[in-house]
UniProtKB/TrEMBL annotation:
NCBIfam families: KaiC_arch_3 (TIGR03880)
Protein name: Circadian clock protein KaiC
Organism encoding this protein: Halalkaliarchaeum desulfuricum
Gene: kaiC
UniProt cross-references to InterPro entries, sorted A to Z: Circ_KaiC_arc, KaiC-like_dom, KaiC_dom, P-loop_NTPase
Sequence ranges assigned to domain KaiC in this UniProt record: 147-376
Compositionally skewed regions (Basic and acidic residues) per UniProt: 34-43
Biased composition annotated in UniProt, kind: Low complexity: 1-13
Disordered: annotated span: 1-137
Amino acid sequence: MRSDGQSSSGGDSIVRTADIGDGIPKSMTDNDDWFERALRELEAEGESSGRNARRSDGNESTDEGEDTGGGEDTGGGEDTGGDEMDPGVTPGPEPMHGSDDVDDFGFADFGKPGESTGDPFGGAASGDAPGGFEPDLTEAELDSDVERIQLGIDGLDSMILGGIPQRSLISVIGSAGTGKTTFALQFLEHGFKDGERAIYLTLEESREAILSTAEDKGWPFREYVEDDRLAVVSMDPIEMANSLSSISSDLSRLVADFGADRLVLDSVSLLEMMYDHPSKRRSQVFEFTRSLKEVGVTTLLTSEASEESPYTSRYGIVEYLTDAVFVLRYVRTSNFQETRMAVEIQKIRDANHSRETKPYEITNEGINVYQQANLF
């Protein structure tokens, strides 16, 4: 691994090779992950549906316990605030045919990026929650001990009620040119404005290319490096795959020694490509993402989208292992004369969010999501 001379204390290398111990990785069952929660929810549903409903006509129940009350629960109380969504479903409002405010591309008039005029997601009256949806969380639940952070992307932060829980593992999925690297840099820039420190681990671009890209957006990443607030580490994906266990341990020490608050890996798809066998790929990526969670900082992974669907990552792994998933995709007109881009939030664990799809653009100042536009 190399850090191009960047160090938290001078000329020493930031990243050093760690010795590989003889211990066996923890079992997958040690994690309280989405799979175990799903099993518990299924068991709870089974117990609920197995109870006999009481009669509601004022008489005592029959001795046989016969269900005569039609007690099937249809309340629709399922909490979908942070669950995975069906990649094949595109959420959004019903088409508004004949509207003068809709352009040829199916977008309503934008307004300014991030600007709200009282109806940011099509249906929320003035004073209502952003996104035109009723939040399932109460004020008491929002005042929990879980600290939350903002992404720093105009319009997109408004689609998340209360912000993303701190120390979450975030993935940004998109095909080439949709702005995944810009998303990651903007995520770090917002943290720098709050006095944070960060590490950018790149497997695709050189260290100089990352710093130049940030400069083009007006973000002084070179100054952050000189002030010892940013470490940009360029790695070869083959080297990383061959030494992933030691690098995971080394990365944990790097974050602790550097005092980082945010971490970016761009891109995890290049790491996945280094494993030919699917089972090897799954196990290695699982262990690596678990080590990232144990690091204890908010981490963002970029991932290439699958060729078959823009809603899934290239190998369909990272979206199940991360706490939050943002999808960046192209939207083409019916005559294919022009292409625009749209973003949606596929899931955020422990946070409520809008399910709508919103258009965005990449400007000289970064990514701007248009709250006022609707995708039809």
